[in-house]
Input
Amino acid sequence: MLVAAMAAPSSAAVSVYLVSRAELGAAPVLGDVASIDAAPGIRKALLTLALPEKALADEYMDRREVEELLAAAVNDVILVYGNAVRVSRMVKEEAAAADEKASDVEQLVLAGEPVGVRVKKNGIVIELSGSALGSGAEGDEVSVRLKGNRTLKGRVVRKGLVELAL
Output
C-alpha cells in the first residue's frame, strides 16, 4: 500500500504528533489519534492506517504502539512526539440504535445554526464558534463560517460540534 508512495526518495523524517485524547468511531485510523508531518503522498497514506484493536484494548495508544505501526509502513526516520493518547469509543444508546434506520440518520449540525468549532494541529486544540453552512450527521463533512467570514471544512463529531484537522 505504501510502497508506491515510498518509491520517491525522501530525506525528511516522518513527524507524528500524538493528541492527548481521541474519540474513535467504528474503524479507527492513525489520523484519529495523531497529526503527521511528512511528504504529501506518505502523509495521506499514514493518516489512513488502521489502528489494531489489540493496541486499543487498554484505552490508550502509546508511543511504542505507534512506532511499531509506522515501522512496518515507513522506511524513513520516525519521530513521535507525545507519550500516549487516551482513546474512547463513541457509544450510541442501544435503544436509539435499534430504532434508527439508515434513512433516518439524525442531523447533528443544521445549516445556519451556530456550532462549536474545534481546530487541531500538531497536538494543539483551539475551540471557536462559527456558523454551519450545511447540515450533516456524525462523520459528515460540512463547511463552517468563522468570524471574519473565513470558511473551512470539517467533520461533524457530535451535536453542534465540528472538528477541523489542519
In short: The mean pLDDT is 81. The radius of gyration is 17 Å. The first strand starts at residue 14 and ends at 18. Residues 17 and 81 are 5 Å apart (CA to CA).
